[in-house]
Specification:
transmembrane helix, Di-haem_cyt_TM, about 5% strand, 2 strands, two-stranded antiparallel ribbon, Fumarate Reductase Cytochrome B subunit, about 190 residues, mainly alpha
Length: about 190
């Protein structure tokens, strides 16, 4: 183990990573459950949550991509060579699938035209013949994204529990030690 395995990503990268992960899992789950809800207000509201959360994910994804190229802390590879190439390739695949899923989701929302919470309506820009294939590819890409994210998680856990190389902890929020009582009140003494 070297010192470089103990370095961590910056707080913004960590927050965007975990926020994206939570949103992806929530969107996938909502997308699967919503099909089983009978048409009506509840169904509309569940799909509205899916669409609204999907548009929020677009924002998080754009922020994440910009941050990746402009502001994040670039960490050295833990393992050089083929293992590093595999890690980079899997990250590229995750980003490509994520961009594909959100793009198809946005296109799907506008091809269908969508009544968001029965309050605001997205305009319909497509015909009914486009709905089925776009919905199919959106779902297929979402399933592939979730499968790859699961492999990504398993790899991180393998690194943590088997290789014990701290790869997982680089993406975990860092705990700051709680200062002693006297240090907490020093600011009030002046």
């Amino acid at each position: 183990m070297t010192d470089r395995t103990h370095s961590t990503y910056d707080p913004t990268t960590i927050a965007l990573h975990w926020l994206s992960a939570l949103m992806i899992v929530a969107l996938w789950f909502i997308g699967r459950v919503a099909d089983f809800i009978p048409r009506g207000t509840l169904n509309t509201n569940v799909w509205s949550i899916h669409v609204a959360l999907g548009f929020a994910l677009v924002t998080v994804l754009l922020w994440r991509i910009v941050w990746r190229f402009t502001g994040r802390r670039h960490l050295p590879a833990v393992y050089p060579g083929p293992t590093h190439v595999l890690a980079v390739s899997s990250h590229v695949a995750l980003y490509v699938l994520l961009v594909t899923v959100v793009t198809l989701g946005v296109v799907n929302a506008f091809v269908r035209g969508f009544n968001l919470f029965d309050i605001a309506a997205l305009p319909q820009f497509g015909d009914k013949e486009l709905r089925k294939p776009i919905t199919y590819w959106h779902g297929l890409a979402a399933n592939a994204l979730l499968a790859l994210a699961l492999l990504h998680s398993i790899a991180a856990l393998y690194h943590h529990h088997v290789l014990k190389d701290k790869v997982l902890t680089r993406m975990l929020p860092q705990r700051r030690p709680f200062p002693p009582m006297e240090e907490r009140f020093e600011q009030f003494d002046s």
